[in-house]
Amino acid sequence: MLEVHEVQDSYIPVSSGEQPRANLRVVDFDWAGESGSVCYPLQRNQEIAWPAGPGERIVVRHDRDLVKGWWHKQFSLEFQASDTDMV
């Protein structure tokens, strides 16, 4: 499975149409790799609340944590995802 680990608002198109749920797609793959096999770079944007420190391994849970933080900051809404939403 391939995960994406650099979440920025410019990389996430959001559409809701007439649905009560929004549909998110991450379109940037700079830090992509198997969960636990890639590490965060030593220098990153300090304005982002990263789920792990520089040089630490990136895991799937970090993607969800980053999206949750971004979602709330952008929309002041609670982010809810099922376990299958971020695979």
UniProtKB/TrEMBL annotation:
Top-level taxon of the source organism: Eukaryota
Protein name: Uncharacterized protein
Organism field: Tulasnella calospora MUT 4182
